[in-house]
Amino acid sequence: MSKQANLAKLSLREMARRIEMPGEAPQKVKHHLQQLEKKGFFSIDRRRGTMGRASSKPGWADGVLETKSKVFAIPIVGAANCGPATLYAEENFQGYLRVSSRLVNRSQPTGLYAIRAAGSSMNRADVDGQRIEDGDLVIVDGRRKSPSHGDIVVAIVENKATIKRFFDDRANGQIVLKADSTIDFDPIHLHPDEEFAISGKVVAVVKKPTPISGGK
Question: Catalytic amino acids?
Fold first, then answer.
């Protein structure tokens, strides 16, 4: 195809012919042109018969290519209580959370899953500036099963899930799972040899959307 060809003055069939795809359906050619326009490669004004670059570089380049941002699909596997461990921790798949890599501060979603927080016992816990409040989606790195002292974790106690701050107090023969709340909650004291598991470390919080007032 000639570098001087003006797409705005060509029919869809002529465009297909010039790119050596004469049998291509016109609607398919039109679809591809629309997608390229949306991404900012060029703009076409058929009424005036002109075309040109919409910007110095594609519009998505600033947001995706340069910052390396991606959109992940992270599985949502149910809910975990932010009070006593009262909600079952079975992997009850509930769909996917679509979230940008920048929001979770990860370049890859490997090992990540989301679980919905229920209750208020972690409403003072700070995860990258976000509190864990009732209804929020908490993103967990399931590979981090050996937490450090003070980490916020999803713990499985008696086959039930709870979100708590982990304190390794083996010097006194115990593991302590503590709330971090404006309300006084009793901590969970566990013997290091008891049957409990750490399902992962909390690495991000996706806030429940704030309702928009409909009042005038």
Answer: 121, 164
Which pair of tokens denotes residue 70? 């991606």
Give strand pairing partners of 204: 139
pLDDT tens track for 141-184? 988 888 999 999 999 888 888 999 999 999 999 999 999 998 88
pTM over 0.90: no
Sign of the dihedral through C-alpha 197, 137, 111, 103? negative
Which residues, in sequence order, are CB contacts of 91 under 8 Å at separation 6+?
Answer: 77, 78
CA distance linking residue 154 with residue 120, whole number of Å = 15
Is 53 exposed, middle or buried (CB count within 10 Å of its CB: 0-12, 13-18, 19+)? exposed
Q: Where do the domains of the chain lie, and which CATH numbers do they carry?
A: 11-65 (no CATH), 71-206 (2.10.109.10)
**Residue 199 is encoded by which pair of tokens?**
């399902």
Closest residue by Cα to residue 127 from 146, 140, 114, 143: 140
Percent of the chain with pLDDT over 70: 66
Q: Name the token pair of 159.
A: 């086959």
| CB atoms closer than 10 angstroms to residue 97 | 19
Tell me the one-letter amino acid at 104. Answer: V
List 73's β-bridge partners, or say none: 98
